[in-house]
Write a structure and sequence with these properties.
The chain is of the alpha/beta class. It has 18 helices and 14 strands. It folds into 3 domains: about 190 residues, Rossmann fold; about 90 residues, N-(1-d-carboxylethyl)-l-norvaline Dehydrogenase, domain 2, CATH 1.10.1040; about 130 residues, Rossmann fold (3-Layer(aba) Sandwich), CATH 3.40.50.720. A 6-stranded parallel beta sheet has the order 3-2-1-4-5-6, with helices on both faces.
Length: about 450
C-alpha cells in the first residue's frame, strides 16, 4: 500500500521505517530540507538501536523514500499518517499547530479518497477537529476518513516494540477505515484493538499517566523505606508478585523524564480541567516526580556539605539508556543545581553528549570516558543506568579522591558494593559505608 508519513521525528521516522519493513511503499515527509537530504543517504538523526539498519535496507529495496514536497507525496497516497510534534504549551496543554497545518495541507493536495491516520499524541477530540479542518478546506471533492492510531513505543526499544508490542489501538467511526488500518498493520502480528475515536485518544494518555503514577508511587515508598531502614527493591518484588500489581515500573529511582510521560501527564491534567475536573491524583504524581529529580543533589549536600570547588561526576545524561534524548532528563536539573552551588561538574554519557551540550548551557564539562569522568572526583552521581555504567570496572571508583557513589538508579546490589571500599548511597535502600572518610571542609 502507498503510505505517506508526515513528520521525520522520533515517531514519524520509526513508523515510516517499520511500515516499509512489512512491505508497504512509504514516503516520509518533513519540512527540514537538510535533514531529509541526509536521510536519503542513510543518516539517522536519532539514536535508536536497530533503526539505521532497517532504514538502509528499505531504501535499497525502494520501499522507503524521503521528501519535503507535501503535494507530490500526497498525490498518490492511499493513507496519510500525521506524526508531527505536539509540544507542551505553557499551561501544560498540547500545542496542535503542526497537526492543524498538516490537515490544511492534506485538504489542499489530495485528489482521491484518503484515510488520514493521527499517530501524534493529541487531546481527546483532536481527530474530530482535524476532520473538520480537512473538510472545510478541501480543494477536491473526495472522501476523507480520520482514524486514531496512537503509538506506544519506548525510546531505546522502538524497533523492537514495533514488532513485539502488546497491542495496536485503532479508533475510527467508519468500520471500513478501521478495517483498512487493521490490514495495514496485520503483518506486525500484534493484537489489534478497535474502538471509537475518543476512546483511542484517551487510551494513549491514560496508559502513560498510569505508568507515571506507578513510578511516582514506588518513589514515595522508597523515601519512606529510607526513613524506616527497609529495602525498596525487596518491597517492589513482594508487591510485584501480586498479579494485580505486577513488577513493571516499580523501579525506584529519581523519576521519569523524556518526551512522553512529563508532557502527557500534564496534558491529561489540562484535558480534565477543560471539563472542570480536578485530577488531584495526577497532580500529585507530577509533584512527586519533580521532587524526586532533585534527590541526588540533596544527598550529595548531606554528605559533602558545601559543594564550592568540589568536582562532581554525573554518570549518564540522557533521560534513559539507549537513547540520546535529553528532553526532561533528570541530569539537566541536577547539573544546573550543582553548578549553581559552585561545583565543578563533568558529565559522562556514551551517546548523548552533543544533545547535552545543547540542553545545558553552562560551565559543565563532558566526556565519553568513565575513567576521565571519575579522575579526582569528590562524588559520582549515577543518573542514567547505561549498561556501560552498570557493568563498570568497580576499580575505576578508586580514581576518585574518595570513593563516594550516589546512585539514582540502584544499579548495583548492596552485597556487591559491600565487597569493595566504596561508600555507596542509593534510593530507598540502606547505605553502604565502605571506607568512609570524613571529607567535610
Amino acid at each position: 500500500m502507498k503510505i505517506t508519513v508526515v513528520g521525520a521525528g522520533y515517531v514519524g521516522l520509526t513508523t515510516s521505517v517499520c511500515l516499509s519493513e512489512i512491505g508497504h511503499e512509504v514516503t516520509c515527509v518533513d519540512v527540514d530540507q537538510i535533514k531529509i537530504d541526509k536521510m536519503k543517504q542513510g543518516y539517522v538523526p536519532i539514536y535508536e538501536p536497530g533503526l539505521k539498519d532497517l532504514m538502509l535496507k528499505n531504501i535499497r529495496k525502494n520501499r522507503l523514500f524521503f521528501s519535503t514536497e507535501h503535494k507530490k507525496s500526497f498525490l498518490y497516497a492511499e493513507v496519510i499518517y500525521i506524526a508531527v510534534g505536539t509540544p507542551e504549551n505553557a499551561d501544560g496543554s498540547a500545542n496542535l499547530k503542526a497537526v492543524e497545518q498538516v490537515a490544511k495541507s492534506i485538504a489542499s493536495y489530495i485528489q482521491q479518497s484518503t484515510v488520514v491516520v493521527i499517530k501524534s499524541t493529541v487531546p481527546v477530540g483532536t481527530n474530530e477537529k482535524v476532520k473538520q479542518i480537512i473538510q472545510q478546506n478541501l480543494e477536491n471533492q473526495v472522501k476523507v476518513d480520520v482514524v486514531s492510531n496512537p503509538e506506544f513505543l519506548r525510546e531505546g526499544s522502538a524497533v523492537y516494540d514495533s514488532f513485539n508490542g502488546d497491542r495496536i489501538v485503532i479508533g475510527a467511526e467508519q468500520k471500513e477505515a478501521a478495517d483498512l488500518l487493521a490490514e495495514i498493520n496485520r503483518s506486525f502480528g500484534i493484537p489489534i484493538y478497535q474502538t471509537d475515536v475518543k476512546s483511542a485518544e484517551m487510551i494513549k494518555y491514560a496508559s502513560n499517566a498510569f505508568l507515571a503514577t506507578k513510578i511516582s508511587f514506588i518513589n514515595e515508598i522508597s523515601n519512606v523505606c529510607e526513613l524506616l531502614g527497609a529495602d525498596v527493591e525487596d518491597v517492589a518484588v513482594g508487591m510485584g508478585l501480586d498479579k494485580r500489581i505486577g513488577i513493571d515500573f516499580l523501579k525506584a529511582g529519581i523519576g521519569y523524564g523524556g518526551s512522553c510521560f512529563p508532557k502527557d501527564t500534564k496534558a491529561l491534567i489540562q484535558i480534565a480541567g477543560n471539563v472542570n475536573y480536578d485530577f488531584k491524583l495526577l497532580k500529585g504524581v507530577v509533584e512527586v516526580n519533580k521532587q524526586q529529580q532533585g534527590l541526588l543533589v540533596k544527598k550529595v549536600i548531606e554528605r559533602l556539605g558545601s559543594l564550592g570547588g568540589k568536582k562532581i561526576s554525573v554518570l549518564g545524561l540522557s533521560f534513559k539508556p539507549n537513547t540520546d534524548d535529553m528532553r526532561e532528563a533528570a541530569s539537566i536539573l541536577i547539573i544546573n543545581e550543582l553548578i549553581k552551588l559552585g561545583a565543578e561538574v563533568i558529565g559522562y554519557d556514551p551517546v548523548a553528549i552533543d544533545n547535552a551540550r545543547l540542553a545545558l548551557e553552562g560551565s559543565a564539562q563532558f566526556t565519553e570516558s568513565l575513567e576521565v569522568a571519575l579522575e579526582n572526583s569528590d562524588a559520582a552521581l549515577i543518573v542514567t543506568e547505561w549498561p556501560e555504567i552498570k557493568n563498570i570496572d568497580i576499580n575505576l571508583f578508586e580514581k576518585m579522591k574518595n570513593p563516594l557513589v550516589i546512585d539514582g538508579r540502584n544499579c548495583f546490589s548492596l552485597d556487591f558494593m559491600k565487597s569493595y571500599g566504596v561508600e555507596y548511597h542509593s534510593i530507598g535502600r540502606p547505605s553502604v559505608i565502605g571506607r568512609k572518610i570524613d571529607i567535610f571542609v
